[in-house]
Amino acid sequence: MPVKREIRSVLFFLMLALGMPALAAVQAATVTRPAELRSTPFGDGKTLKTLATGARLDVLKRVGGWYRVKTAEGAEGWVRMWLVRFASAPGTGTRVAVLGSGRSGSTYTTATTGVRGLSEEELQNAKPNPAAVAALEQFAVAPDDARRFARQAPLKADPSLKEAP
User: Fold this and answer.
1) Which residues, in sequence order, are CB contacts of 50 under 8 Å at separation 6+?
2) 10 Å Cβ neighbour count for 101?
3) Looking at the domain covering 22-117, what would its CATH class be?
4) Which residue among 53, 94, 102, 111 is least crowded, i.e. fewest CB within 10 A of its CB?
């Protein structure tokens, strides 16, 4: 009888393994605002096309803050997850999507994605980039200009904040 038991166990695990893709099946969604469909899950990935607000998608996979999607026209690519709204709550309906979108509550609004942008390895290997800092400094505002803008708004100073040197 141990052989029968082993065969049953093997068959059970084989059926389980073959059924696993159904657990990661596609999830219907729409785009909440115009979104770029990119070739890779990175901000500098090639833009394949721009998706219109309300465009229907099938979400295939999640990587960080990106969803791999397939459009109604059949184009596949990556969209930032905060631009995607699921047709039903993730993990419900006839097809289960095990995507862990970071959505919660009855409205299924995004609370947080937990994506920081850099992995631990990338942070450990990070190098200073003085050219990038110099490029950002062009956006700095002179203190007098900031005060003038605040008076026009009219904005009030927050006493808990200190002025930068």
Assistant:
1) 34, 35, 36, 37
2) 21
3) mainly beta
4) 94
Residue ranges of the chain that CATH labels 2.30.30.40: 22-117
Look-up: residue for tokens 């690519």?
77
SS3 sequence, the chain?
Answer: CHHHHHHHHHHHHHHHHHHHHHHECCEEEEECCCEEEECCCCCCCCEEEEECCCCEEEEEEEECCEEEEEECCCCEEEEEHHHEEECCCCCCCCCCECCCCCEECCCCEECCCCCCCCCHHHHHCCCCCHHHHHHHHCCCCCHHHHHHHHHHCCCCCCCCCCCCC
pLDDT over 70 (residue 41) = yes
Buried b (16+ CB within 10 A) or exposed e, 13-40: eeeeeeeeeeeeebbebebeeebbbbee
In whole angstroms, what is the distance from residue 55 CA to residue 30 CA?
5
- Could you tell me the pTM of the whole model? 0.45
Q: Which amino acid is at 39?
A: S
Chain segment 106-133, per-residue pLDDT in tens = 444 444 555 556 677 877 888 888 888 8
